[in-house]
């Protein structure tokens, strides 16, 4: 009975986390437009950060509750899930992703840089304050680059934002924080009863759950013909996951880096990041390439389950 209660708490808190994130993203986007921020910047920064908000909230909460091993599992797992599962599902759902521009020339170097930096900083099994500040520097460079390339539409009328929008922004933020807090508590209790390490649950269940916003936003954008937004969302979310989640979580406490993540999951994340660049080199990702990405995700989940037992 207690296990069922914990599963129920996990499902409800994760649902609150995702719904709160959805309200936060929509409200932030509407407020951003009202201040004259271009849709390009909103998509690359606000939406990308918003869809990474569940990862950030669950990671900080896990550090405060003494389960810091969840942080790196959440970051690495979410980055793999975003590329292997999200891109795979988008490519399959619309049969082919066509890009309006070559991301190799613009965004891909930032994604590769964040992935390689994470790989090398974790090789010693430690993530220091210096490295946390280094990651903040990477985040600052990415944001400065984004705003430098902002293209605002001239003479665009700005819609006024109602008090309800600000209220949903605040309520969404509260739901994200409380949802993350109870999600981590439920994970800790379930892992103790099942004899499974919390970081394994973070690599699979939490990584999938916190990647749901990316899945929903990317597939929705692709079905509306906005495939560049779908790709940009994955790119931006992975960069925010690495730089923002790792650095901010470190400021709340020491991060435990499980050895199997360094030897298994982290190399797979690097491979998936490189593969993302390769399949998008010709400005399109086909359904068949999407199926190949799904195969990698199935392997990843199977490998994580194998290490859990």
Describe this structure as you would to a colleague.
The chain has 309 residues and is mainly α. The chain has one domain (2-149, 162-308): NCX, central ion-binding region (A middle domain of Talin 1, Up-down Bundle). It is built from eleven helices and two strands. A two-stranded antiparallel ribbon has the order 1-2. The longest helix is centred in the first third of the chain and has 33 residues, at 2-34.
Task: Name the overall outline.
Answer: globular
Q: Return residue spans where pLDDT drops below 50 for at least 5 consecutive residues.
A: 151-155
Give the rounded overall mean pLDDT.
79
**Terminal residue distance:** 23 Å
CATH top level? Mainly Alpha
Number of helices: 11
Strand order of the largest sheet: 1-2
Provide the structure class: mainly alpha
* Sheet having the most strands: 2 strands, antiparallel
